[in-house]
Design a protein that fits this description.
The protein is α/β, with parallel strands linked by helices. The protein is built from nine helices and ten strands.
Length: 251
């Protein structure tokens, strides 16, 4: 299917029987899921269950051995794929902020639209200031990463990803390295994005947050999706013993 034939009543992200291995070690063992436009999906599970690998495959940071991943109908595993075009559509925020330390918050947000999208500087600056305001960092435009808390740096990283105008945002354990008091600021920012209708796929261990924002929660263990469902059902009536055991340890 060519990207041109994709319509909004189809999943914006679709995975079918995705397998990924590192050498003999199989990390993903046949993952399938559909994400509709505007949905918020939370992926939870024990360490080493393949969660981060899964979302890195969606924007082609990791290749897959077999199966299919489509974003807006475009096959991500196609050797002819324009990865840059894909990453304009699919933004990603990591556990590490990866900001340029010698550039201000504003410059960090402006870099990709100017360098990659070749957009005019004044337009980019206007939008970057708006995005920093959106992530509640008004007044920090000229601060360098070293002058910002971890939570503030992570919000700059979110604004930087939004500057590319993506259709989908991937979040990989974005609060894992943060102090408890700064976790909330970052989660509030993501909640705002979800409320604005951004399609979000999050790997997270913040259960209260997942319960509040997710349309669907997926529980992965040892490379498979054990079960999934809306938060109310998922947390109250998990069917699989593995899910119940995992939840009993963390709730």
């Amino acid at each position: 299917m060519s990207a041109a034939k994709w319509t909004t009543d189809m999943p914006i992200v679709s995975l079918r029987d995705v397998h990924k291995a590192y050498g003999a070690y199989e990390v993903l063992k046949g993952i399938s899921m559909d994400v509709m436009m505007g949905e918020v999906i939370c992926i939870i599970g024990p360490s080493g269950s393949g969660k981060s690998t899964l979302i890195r495959c969606i924007n082609a940071l990791n290749d897959i051995q077999s199966g299919s991943i489509k974003v807006e109908g475009q096959e991500v595993n196609d050797p002819k794929l324009d990865k840059l075009a894909l990453r304009k559509k699919v933004g990603m925020v990591f556990q590490q902020y990866n900001l340029f330390p010698h550039k201000t918050a504003l410059q960090n947000v402006m870099m990709a639209p100017i360098k990659v999208l070749k957009q005019p500087r004044d337009e980019v600056e206007k939008r970057a200031r708006m995005l920093l305001k959106k992530v509640r960092l008004e007044g920090k435009e000229n601060a360098y990463p070293g002058e910002l808390s971890g939570g503030q740096q992570q919000r700059v990283a979110i604004a930087r990803s939004l500057a590319m105008n993506p259709q989908v945002m991937l979040f990989d354990e974005v609060t894992a390295a943060l102090d408890p008091e700064t976790v909330k600021e970052v989660l509030t920012t993501i909640k705002d994005l979800a409320a604005d209708g951004m399609t979000c796929i999050l790997v997270t261990h913040e259960m209260a947050f997942a319960r509040e924002v997710a349309n669907t929660i997926y529980f992965t263990d040892r490379g498979i999706i054990v079960e999934h469902g809306p938060p109310d059902t998922f947390f109250a009536n998990a069917r699989d013993p593995r899910t119940r055991e995992f939840l009993s340890q963390i709730l």
